[in-house]
Fold this protein.
Amino acid sequence: MTTQRLSGFVPAGALSREIDRVIQDFWRAFPTHSGLSVFNGHATPPVNVRETADRFEAELELPGLSLSDIEVVVKGRELTIRGQRAAPQNDGATWHRRERAFGNFSRVLHLPAEIDGDKVQARLDQGVLTIVLPKSEGARARRIPIATLHNGN
Amino acid sequence: MNNENSLPKSTAEVESTERLRSGATFRPNVDICESEQELTVYADLPGVDPRNIDIRFEQGVLTLEGTLAPRAEGDGWLLREYDVGDFRRTFQVSESVDSEAITAEHKDGVLTLHLPKVSAARPRRIEVNASGS
């Protein structure tokens, strides 16, 4: 399980790893992807994360999962999403096509600012998990008023 | 009973036609399994409103398509690993399917399609009556 650091400034090593991963994701994703995602023991569900002045919003596609299959943990700047997707039982049936992936997954995202853990909200709607993570009071971007100095004429 | 070699043919994917419109068309991931009674298709369609899913079965071709408005607009992205949009899959189904009896359900972003076989296509089990003593 690796921690992913989300920031505009990424150390060179981490950046190349990130690029590798993006390229792999791209090739893996291109024929079948997406939005409509794949995960299994080796892969992880893709995540979109955006930042506004006062919060982060993370979104994952987790089709077929219910709330009891998903665990969201926030600690400091770290967001952990864990879950499992059970394979459907089809006793005696023959599979013609198996593209969907099942199993356990986890993602750990290191956000660039402290999170107010008490105010985090997660919603699962038709297989899409949305997590709203308000920044802690001290971490919010503040607009600093700039005083205009008039010439005392 | 079908043998292993003939099975994949019953749901061959049809080359999708070129679409003259902007935006990518996504290929949702699909599982297809066959029992004695039916073919069952599972499609991962997270975030898709069931009203925007169009399912057609014509002349042995199953088409599954629909629309999904892109969500990842605007700025402030720290991580953008996926995108969403209109989707389409098409399969040639060589099994005899009772098209009137096809049903579909949508739950937690997964579409499940049931395509019952017409009775002639089902393997018939002939009961052998033991002439009792």
